[in-house]
Structure prediction request, 215 residues.
Amino acid sequence: MNNVTEPRTIQRYSTSQRINHWIIAITFVLLAVSGLALFHPSFYWMSNLLGGGVWTRILHPFIGVVMFLCFFVFAARMFTHNFIQKRDLEWVRRAPEMLNLKEENLPEQGRYNGGQKLLFFTLIFLMLGLLATGVVMWRSYFSYLFPIELIRVASLLHAFFGFAIICAIIMHIYAGIWVKGSVKAMTRGTVTHGWAWKHHRAWLREIRDTPTHEK
Prediction:
């Protein structure tokens, strides 16, 4: 019988982190659908998801606040893992090699690779933009404080940020499906040693060398 020197799986996300992530995911879907319903008449039928046009207009900003708060709690917990290093820039430069299934040629990555880190900071920027423009547009509470010209500009920027974050999340989902085992990390919280060795080798070395590490 082989001696087992280490556990077969590694915890990548705690239960609270996974719950937080899925709240963000659910609220994002609700916001994307309701936002499209409010953006153009051809999507207005989507407002039925939240009970019709009136309820969609009422609930959309409140759901946005929930997603914003949950996202920044999650981002705060992950911030130190997303500092961009020289190896991350090299990873981004050579990312096409990963798409060609030559990941062994890429530099070793920490808990997150260069692409994930760029997406992380992109999402922070877009979330701040959505919050700022959304507050300006929130008629029931804040829009009366701003001139109509600013509200119009905020409306255009809000639509732009909304479109950009939908594209970013689609890319995030695609990458999670592309890299087998990533979805399991956010559903069960664990990854195999083989997965960590292949995709985040520097992170695996780090947690092997650290008696206690953040779960």
Notes: Confidence is low (pLDDT under 50) at residues 1-5. The first helix runs from residue 15 to 39. The two ends are 30 Å apart (CA to CA).
